[in-house]
Amino acid sequence: MNQLRLLNVSKTYKNGVKALDNVSIEINSGMFGLLGPNGAGKSTLMRTIATLQQPDSGEIYLDDIDILNQKMELRKVLGYLPQSFGVYPKLSAEKLLHYFAELKGLSNKAERKQIVDYALEVTNLYDVKNKHVAGYSGGMKQRFGIAQLLLNNPKLIIVDEPTAGLDPAERHRFLNVLREIGTNHIVILSTHIVDDVKELCTDMAILNGGKLLCHKKPIDAVLDL
Ligand code: ADP
Ligand code: ADP
């Protein structure tokens, strides 16, 4: 059972915007939804947990890793899908995943094939593995992003507003992929779409103006909105 713990995390940007105001929370294995309107501080929180930026104060732990002081330890077990589509070279999904797996140090070809096939299957891209990722639709690219971050079997997976701009069918396919991987990882989904959280998450919190407003089961929170 993995656990992520945040203790009194605060961040004020140089322009005076208080993006995170004393945020404390415990997140366990499964699908966690971080809901909040634009400007709430979601991306700031996601980037902070992903060690891409430093808070002004507070502590963050993933199990026994002190994230703010052991960045490299965290990065080895992190999968992070940021908020924009990637630009990809003209290579098939399968070839690109093999390449990324090699970059991550998987030099044994049989082991690499096993993890690449797993990533393609979980993300429902196996049937289109020979197509160029550059020609994928937005939703397929998002699922490819998930396939890519599964290659090092991360403990913690962070996806920032992944369904923005997806059509309903693709959104559904994407949420199903998250549901599948949520069974054996901590997955944090940041979104402003209440239905994403309602459909998927076992636990949730609402962020507004940098403050964590509530932290409870999705259905109760949705009734409160
Ligand atoms: P910090 O206080 O973390 O050093 P900065 O004020 O130096 O942050 O800004 C870091 C980057 O974020 C800059 O490239 C800046 O252009 C960009 N930025 C500034 N204001 C905003 C904003 N309101 N939303 C998103 N990005 C912003
Ligand atoms: P969300 O992801 O929920 O939309 P953000 O974390 O992007 O929220 O932004 C929270 C607040 O901090 C907003 O008011 C935003 O304009 C501001 N902000 C975000 N990044 C920066 C930055 N680098 N510099 C200054 N202000 C920022």
From TrEMBL:
Annotated ABC transporter domain residues: 4-225
MF GO annotations: ATP binding
Entry keywords, A to Z: ATP-binding, Nucleotide-binding, Transport
Coiled coil: none
Recorded superkingdom: Bacteria
Nucleotide-binding keyword on record: yes
Family: Belongs to the ABC transporter superfamily.
Protein name from the UniProt record: ABC transporter ATP-binding protein
Source species of the chain: Psychroflexus lacisalsi
Portion held of the full protein: 1 to 225 of 300
